[in-house]
């Protein structure tokens, strides 16, 4: 016996009788691709056999140990091949890509086809006969109402096509395999614990990927994982789940229309930390997914579609991305945003944190923030994604940092503003990618002179909040938000999210951007952040400066120096609520309750931290404060200051002239 390589062994054997055909095969995974024999007297012969295993790693590109090489995999391929009549089986065995076989198609009266990654191959010139179909059907379990069946303890999927009398006239037999390591391409997302939506065209490998995700989460991250296995495709046919799902538990679905019920049942009865669900396709299933996500369970699900845009356009699946609604803007708002009056907007939070568009078995696009991607698509901007490829030669993952999809807006019919998207595309074309140090921040941490608004990329902070604060501060012309981190000057993020999603720091490092970190999502912190981003406020002694390589700036609250009384706390809370719920969002003045003058002084200090104006009203015995939706005389960037104004904002009513139209005396403004 001679081993040519790990796959091929040359074996010299003596048979008393050899088959008359020039090849034979064994019932285990090994097969003989050639047999040269010499017959002597028709009785004895010596033969040279080439025994080849089905290719172990047919697909290039997977993680450290992506492999289908378990002995069971070979046995399972045999189980699959037994579906075929003997003659077809022999033909198929001879194919050099047998280890990577994807599907066999058998249609009555037509030549059988085998689908390989390299393309389709006619297995036999003989058309499929009724007996051939009967033979295959006899080897599989019962077909369920979605016309799918399987082979006990294997991952293969057999789908039937029926005639009008409900007789089976065609079969699509898919080879299922557990590919260990196939989830390495998105391991960080799996580990992060966010909900992941995997989309891709049929056959790209979605089921295989989420099967491996289920195994990884259950076995390596020790999570309680429940798979809602509608067609037994993830956990295999039969009541004992396939080893490919590891310790994950599997719930079978008696009827496809019950998938959504089983999803909810899984959460209610089995205390899962993660739910895995293949093929979310109906509105009820999408709703069930959203309910699960709201209950704080990590969800990993798949849906058919090439891109997120396909999901947005699908009325049943829209809810997965937060739902879409059309909003009519006022004339002025539409002019300002440079969009039509009726625009599309996202209704709520997406069910999934991030999305993965599977391009092939070794390549995907990662949308770290599904909400931002959806908003970008609706606004006609190119969504940000990170391209990932598995490099088989290096046995490593290659990540291309987030970049907007070029020309996305031009092809989309969902966009609110095509002019905007083409502007962005051309702007982007001018830039080198990846970018070099942008010089927007000088080494001592101050913003250098610029003529366009500062672009802020927000992470888990509502863009609308930032813009509203900037507007109230009269700084809307010098600060803006962007969905494209590549064009951003700074990142504003919440500290809890930074802890959970460290990739944002990596992205900041790559683009060399400072990250302003807000500890609590209060308006006061937002105001401070805006001022620091614009260089209008210096960094505190304990705050890190936005230096190259040291990019985090924590926004700290201005701590009160002494312990406030209960009355003071109450009065200050009244101010905070009034400002954050009425004055800033609604642009309306609020008159506060009468207070002692020392308390009013404290209230006024707080109002000024929001950079708002206030008036004293009430009687001398019962003084009270009225907070006005007017900004204080913020130190505006002058010609020589760090930021230059592009357009002039409406002139603010002077807050320090001592009087207003009603004759009420204004309180003096504290120096900044
Ligand atoms: N990483 C991989 N390595 C080897 N084979 C793979 C890999 N991923 C998928 N396959 C094979 O590709 C075929 C299709 O995979 P899979 O069923 O996972 O695709 P899918 O996207 O879920 O398809 P569908 O949407 O039709 O259900 C199967 O034969 C599977 O065994």
Automatic annotation (TrEMBL):
Stretch forming the signal peptide: none
Organism of derivation: Canavalia gladiata
Residues of the AAA+ ATPase domain: 192-323
SMART domains: AAA (SM00382)
PANTHER family recorded: KINASE-RELATED, PROTEIN SEEDLING PLASTID DEVELOPMENT 1
Renumbered residue ranges of the record's region Disordered: 403-427, 623-672
Entry keyword Nucleotide-binding: yes
Keywords: ATP-binding, Nucleotide-binding
Official protein name in the record: AAA+ ATPase domain-containing protein
Molecular function via GO: ATP binding
Skewed-composition ranges (Basic residues): 633-648
